[in-house]
Structures are given as C-alpha cells and as structure tokens.
Design a protein that fits this description.
This protein is mainly beta. The chain folds into two domains: about 130 residues, Jelly Rolls, CATH 2.60.120.10; about 140 residues, Jelly Rolls. Helix content is about 10%, strand content about 40%. The chain contains four helices and 21 strands. The strands form four sheets. Strands 1, 12, 13, 14, 15, 16, 17, 18 and 21 form a nine-stranded antiparallel sheet that branches. Strands 2, 3, 4, 5, 6, 7, 8 and 11 form an eight-stranded antiparallel sheet that branches. It is globular.
C-alpha cells in the first residue's frame, strides 16, 4: 500500500499522545483514525477524548451503496452530519429528504435520526457534542465502570491504523431542496427542538478573523452545544492567529491548498486535512494559490467570536440574522 506523504510527519495526530494534542494541537486528516462500526456503519474516529478533545467527537462515516444507518437518538448530545461525497437521504423532522454534499443535518436531543445512502454510496463527517463515551466501549478503549479512556492504548491503536482513501476534488455545493426542513425557513426554537437541514454555504455572514465566513451552526439559529463555521479566502490572505478560550475545534480543509499555523510553526495542508485546535491552542490559516474552503466544527459554540459581532445581545442571547449565501 502506498502511504500518504504526511504519514511520517511527527506533528500528525497519529504520532502525538492525547496530552500533547490537548496542549499544543496537531494536524490530522479525515483519512486518519481508528476504524470501528457505529450504528451499523463503518466509522473512522478523527477527534475524541482519546486523543485530546473534551467537548466533541468528530467521526467519518462511510456508507456502502444503499446502506441505511440504524435509527438512533441521544439524551444529551447534539449531532451534526455533513454530507461530504456521494449522497442519499436524511431523516429530518420526521421525514426522509434528499441529502447531498454540502448539506448538513442537525439533530438535537432526543430527536431520533438516521441516514441512508444512494446508489453511489456516501461519506459523512459527523460531530457529536458532547461526546457519547459508550460508543467507544466496543473498541475496548473506554471503561464505563471507572469512567476512564485508555489513552495509551488509543495512541497505539491510532498509530497502527490503516489510512483511508478519501480524495478530492471537493463535492460540496449549495442546495435548496426540501424547503420545508431548511434552517432558513424555520425559527431558532423549531431548530433547537426538532432539528433542520442546513447547507454550509449559507449562514450569518461575518468577518471576525480576517476571512469571509458564515456562522452555520451557532446559538443564533438554535444549536446549543454544536458549532460549525464555513470560510473562504483569496490567495495570499492570512487569517488572524487566534485561540478559543472555552471551545475545542476541528478545522477541515475542504477544498484547495493552504498552510496552517499551530504549535509555533506553519504546516502544509492538503484537502481533507484537519487542524486540531483544542481549547486555548493558537491557530490560523494562510491561503495559497487557487484559494480554499475551510469549515470548523466547534464545541461548545464559540462565544468569543459571537461577542465581537452585532448579533450578540449580551448574557448569552443572540439575534437571528438572515441566512445568506457565502461568496465563493
């Protein structure tokens, strides 16, 4: 098997223990993590408490053509599921709707939900906030009786895992299907209690880190524990270097090329690479020729960003601005 060119990079998440990632971050990939079965679907663990994250988990789900996920619901966690490649249908607000690359289905607790793939199969990135620890019992890495993750065993399991083969180009696109469950046609209260279908190219337009972006999942639109922002940038643009004092974040390069600042240096990034930026870890992005698309999963949502906008009304309350298209 030909190994990816990043395989031997010592700053990659597979070569760093949980305490190192928690303190200084790492560079990961949607192709890099322990694989197990979750709700009947092959699942790769990207970020989770076993490698330094405390407030969210990020998984990559690979559906075979026609495969349907076991319906499930959580009593505490929110789940956000982004269609990355292929496509199918999502069970949103009690009905099956088209689910295509760029669409993000949001499910609050205790709403039952599921996905099913079309004839081409489907790849989905799913964020669960806060993490559901019982998922990891079947891997033998979490001991429910004492409430402990064996991070050393997790490090070796990740270090010996076989990388995936997800590759570009990006298939993310803007869609307006299923109008009855689209987030821009629902109130924040409706989304908070019943879920909705978002699209990463549409949200609250803002520029708070020197890069054009939209807040997609954030408290102004209903989510309480899950955040997702989507950004673009022209070649040569460098975002502000920043850290989030109370949020863990996974920032994914969805399209193009870029460099990411972390751990005191710049790191070359390729499509589907991930910046691991736990709470307090500084990070930023430099956009290379051709531009790029970035999207960050964060938990809890980043009040430090929202408080710098006109949407913030104080004491944890927010206006709900219109959802607009991101200019790309």
């Amino acid at each position: 098997m030909d190994l990816p060119k990043w395989y031997g990079d010592p700053y990659r998440s597979r070569h760093r223990r949980a305490a190192e990632i928690r303190t200084d971050g790492a560079i990961g990939s949607l192709n890099d993590g322990i694989v197990f079965e979750l709700h009947g679907v092959s699942t790769r663990i990207i970020a989770w408490p076993g490698n330094g994250f405390q407030t969210e988990s990020l998984h990559v789900l690979t559906f075979e053509p026609g495969q349907e996920m076991e319906p499930h619901a959580y009593g505490l966690a929110e789940e956000a599921m982004l269609c990355v490649q292929g496509g199918g249908e999502a069970l949103v607000r009690g009905g099956w709707v088209d689910f295509a690359p760029g669409d993000m289905a949001f499910f609050p607790p205790p709403v039952e939900h599921s996905l099913r793939a079309g004839k081409e199969g489907m790849v989905v990135a799913a964020a669960i906030s806060p993490p559901e620890f019982e998922h990891y019992e079947k891997t033998g890495l979490y001991n429910r009786a004492v409430g402990v993750i064996d991070t050393e065993a997790a490090f070796y399991a990740h270090n010996n895992s076989v990388p995936g083969d997800l590759s570009g180009p990006s298939q993310l696109a803007y869609h307006e299907t299923a109008e009855e469950v689209r987030a821009w046609n629902l109130s924040a209260d409706e989304i908070r209690t019943g879920g909705a279908l978002f699209n990463v190219f549409r949200g609250a337009k803002i520029d708070v880190i020197d890069a054009p972006m939209v807040f997609v999942l954030w408290p102004g639109y209903g989510p309480r524990s899950t955040g997702f922002h989507f950004a673009t940038g022209e070649p040569g643009l460098t975002s502000a270097l920043h850290a989030h004092p109370a949020s863990d974040e996974c920032v994914v390069l969805w399209e193009g090329s870029a460099r990411a600042w972390q751990g005191g240096g710049w790191h070359e990034m390729e499509i589907f690479d991930v910046v691991f930026a736990p709470c307090g870890v500084g990070h930023g992005v430099s956009f290379l020729p051709g531009g790029s698309l970035w999207g960050g999963f964060a938990a809890p949502p980043q009040l430090d960003l929202y408080a710098r906008t006109d949407f913030y009304e104080g004491t944890g309350t927010f206006a709900a601005p219109p959802q607009e298209r991101l200019d790309v």
